[in-house]
Amino acid sequence: xxxxxxxxxxKLHDVFTQxxxxxxxxxxxxxxxxxxxxxxxxxxxxxxxxxxPEEGVTLTPSPSLLTNKVVIYLSTLFAKxxxxxxxxxxxxxxxxxxxxxxxxxxKSIPGINDVSMTTNAVTLSRQLPALLKAxxxxxxxxxxxxxxxxxxxxxxxxxxxxxxxREGLEAALNSDIPSVKINVVVMQGFNEDELCDFxxxxxxxxxxxxxxxxxxxxxxxxxxxxxxxxxxxxxxLEERFGxxxxxxxxxxxxxxxxxxxxxxxxxxFISSMSRNFCGGCNRLRLTHDGNLKMCLFGKDExxxxxxxxxxxxxxxxxxxxxxxxxRKKKSHGGEEEIIKQMxxxxxxxGG
Length: 351
Known about the structure:
Number of strands: 13
CATH topology: TIM Barrel
Mean pLDDT: 86
């Protein structure tokens, strides 16, 4: 019997033309995919300008979203195919009312060794104890400025909200969670003057600060005028701190990591635009409406939700997932191609 999956942004494909010999998530370039990023909410308690269009977004109707039960089911399938790390994203994952139980259930899946989260940390200080008890392994905090008025501008919230974020960060650093990172989206004319201030946070702390190049997504008014390549970011830090000390990264690392002399923590640069890291990519993404994305910037998405709702078997789903991975491109096409392929606002993708 033959089945077809809807390939969003492309024509229908017969998804079972792919070999059923193996469900390993290896693409045609030899990359083994062991890392799944799952968006568990389209909602967010902030309105960051590079993520959320100014006019807001129309949220996907609830019946079209994945339930936690389906998230666990799909995660189990991915684990059977070799995924061992899951990162929960959004929107903002902590607005999912069942986030603690979701973390606990994901940690109980055989083969899943690491369950992490990317959060804005607004409610983290309150939720962290329960999340740690549930088994949360690592946390990344999105924070683009240390200045309250700038924070209010970038998030479209009050300056006082920054205090809650800083409390969440301190709670994480004071816990025994193994890894705490800050993700800073660097934007010309907004926070380029704070690079050294963020790096200073690593002096006496195990914190890792990672500077992200500004990336284009629908509705975020991306412009070359806001873009600062990682080489320039690195130059600014070295003018202040001296030569950065290179850290040996794993082949699948998204960040080019360094240490500053006499600093406990580290800094890193995520150069999605100027120097891609596609060659070692081991990541897949599952959106909250059930689409599997092979690349953050790619337009092709396979609807796993639709297959589940038409009673396809586990074998069918594994074949679809494996076939989608086989179609993954060697790399994204660079800045011009990324801009052409912008399809969703970032809040609908899951970071």
